[in-house]
């Protein structure tokens, strides 16, 4: 023997697999194209996000802030929340401030409403305020 240790290719592959994350797509993160068409106008943007972390996008001209989170444990749905100052809104259907969105859809169109949130047992029917659009790019 010449003093060299011989390692099989299978052992090298096993070592590499053990050192890599379980799913390299989750390590890379994702991007989201977002936009809104509202009674105040239109605006759009793009943000880069990491899985399992909250991600924030702003539509400055509309006074909207979008918060997104895509969890690796719930990969089929992204949590989306919306905050607004200028519109006196914003709510999704049934006056909710957050919803679940399927990130695998080519484009999500989500109706927005303005008005008041629920109070006690009162039913409040809010007015349409426009639409929020989301496109997830899972790297």
Descriptors:
single chain; 139 residues; mainly beta; 5-stranded antiparallel β-sheet; 4-stranded antiparallel β-sheet; 2 helices; 12% helix
Short précis:
The protein is mainly beta and 139 residues long.
Please identify the structural class as seen in this structure. mainly beta
Mean pLDDT: 77
* The number of domains: 1
The arrangement of helices and strands along the chain is: HHEEEEEEEEE
Taking pLDDT < 50 over at least 5 consecutive residues as the criterion, the unreliable ranges are 9-26
Number of helical regions: 2
Rg, rounded, reads 22 Å
Categorize the overall geometry: globular
If strands are numbered along the chain, what order do they take across the biggest sheet?
2-1-9-8-6
Question: How many individual β-strands?
Answer: 9
What would you say this structure looks like, in words?
Residues 9-26 have low confidence and may be disordered. The strands form 2 sheets. The protein has a 5-stranded antiparallel β-sheet with strand order 2-1-9-8-6. A 4-stranded antiparallel β-sheet has the order 3-4-5-7, with no helix packed on it. The chain has one domain (25-138). The longest helix has 11 residues, at 9-19. The protein starts with 8 loop residues before the first helix and ends with a strand. It has helices at 9-19, 24-28, and strands at residues 30-38, 41-49, 55-59, 64-70, 78-84, 89-91, 98-101, 108-114, 127-138. By secondary structure, it is mainly β. The protein is 12% helix and 45% strand. The protein is built from 2 helices and 9 strands. The radius of gyration is 22 Å and the shape is globular.
């Amino acid at each position: 023997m010449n003093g060299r240790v011989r390692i099989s290719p299978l052992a090298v592959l096993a070592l590499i697999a053990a050192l890599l994350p379980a799913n390299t797509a989750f390590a890379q993160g994702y991007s989201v194209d977002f936009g809104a068409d509202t009674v105040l106008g239109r605006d759009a943007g793009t943000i880069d996000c990491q899985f399992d972390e909250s991600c924030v996008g702003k539509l400055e001209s509309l006074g909207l802030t979008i918060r997104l989170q895509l969890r690796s444990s719930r990969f089929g749905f992204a949590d989306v929340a919306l905050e607004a100052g200028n519109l006196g809104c914003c709510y999704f259907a049934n006056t909710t401030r957050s919803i679940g969105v399927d990130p695998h859809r080519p484009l999500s169109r989500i109706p927005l409403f303005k008005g008041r949130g629920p109070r006690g047992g009162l039913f409040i029917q809010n007015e349409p305020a426009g639409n929020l659009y989301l496109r997830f790019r899972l790297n």
